[in-house]
Amino acid sequence: MDDGSTNSKENKKESQDRIASGSDMEQRVRSHFSRYTLTHYTVTELITMASAIERMAPGKNPMDLAGFMDWATGRLLGRLEQLPGMPNESELFPLGLMGINETSKNYYGSQFHELAPAQRDVVLRSIEDGVAPGSIWQRIPSDYFYRRFYTKVLHGLFAEQKEWTRIGILRSADPTDRKRSAQPFLQIT
Predict the structure, then answer these.
(1) What are the pLDDT digits (tens) for 140-172?
(2) What pLDDT shows up at residue 25?
(3) Contact 53, 93 (CB under 8 A)
(4) Residue 171's Cα: distance from chain center in Å?
(5) CA-to-CA separations, 29 to 3, 43, 100, in angstroms, rounded
(6) Residue-level pLDDT at 31
(7) Which of 67, 85, 94, 84 is nearest to 149 (CA)?
(8) Pick from 188, 185, 166: nearest CA to 177
(9) Of 103, 143, 133, which is closest to residue 120 (Cα–Cα)?
(10) Can you tell me whether residue 182 is helix, strand or coil?
(11) Quick one: pLDDT at residue 71?
């Protein structure tokens, strides 16, 4: 009878083996992202994910968003749009990340993270448009993966209060916190 200790030991060993190249990435992986251990992705998937996020959310730390993606994978955030016959996110996202690398190899002969930014954009655009080559995309439509993945990235991007403030959604309800020169949030004329 299995008491689950074997799986726990395997998961611990697997997470200890998740050491990626690159100083920031390596530090974050070794520290288990300071908050938790990755549970859904391998090192290769993590590197591919961070490289894709870097192009989808320029100027943001891709490792922070990759950590969010690991936490959020399989969690219902917003509206669920799972097509009949499609895998759940825990299966869809790793498959799609493998598909990104497969498409990269078909186009350029290299892994996605090894590509120049313009080449990464070409790969992501073909996936978004549903025309990416590769056997993975025969199993799941590339545009379906892209839409689901990018939506989850956006959830992570706008999960921080500073981003809400930046786009004007969140303001203090205390009128003394507002600058005197600022326009009122709602003007009634």
Answers:
(1) 999 999 999 998 888 887 766 555 566 665 554
(2) 53
(3) no
(4) 27
(5) 28, 9, 22
(6) 52
(7) 94
(8) 185
(9) 103
(10) coil
(11) 82
Cα–Cα separations (whole angstroms), residue 111 to 49, 51, 95, 108, 143 = 12, 10, 15, 8, 20
Report the alpha-carbon angle 165-168-169, nearest 5: 85
Q: What is the dihedral of CA 48, 53, 55, 56, to 10 degrees?
A: 140
CB 103 within 8 A of CB 127: yes
Buried b (16+ CB within 10 A) or exposed e, 104-142: beebbeebbbebeeeebeebbebbbeeebebebbeebeb
Tokens 């689901």 found at: 148
Map out the domains of the chain as residue ranges. 42-165
Cβ–Cβ under 8 Å, residues 41 and 50 = no
Q: SS in 3 state form for 74-99?
A: CCCCCCCCCCCCCCCHHHHHHHHHHH
CA 120 to CA 87: how far, in whole Å? 25
Q: Give alpha helix (H) positions in the chain.
A: 5-16, 23-30, 43-56, 62-72, 89-108, 117-128, 136-139, 142-157, 161-166
- Interatomic CA distance for residues 118 and 55, integer angstroms: 9
The amino acid that residue 94 corresponds to is P
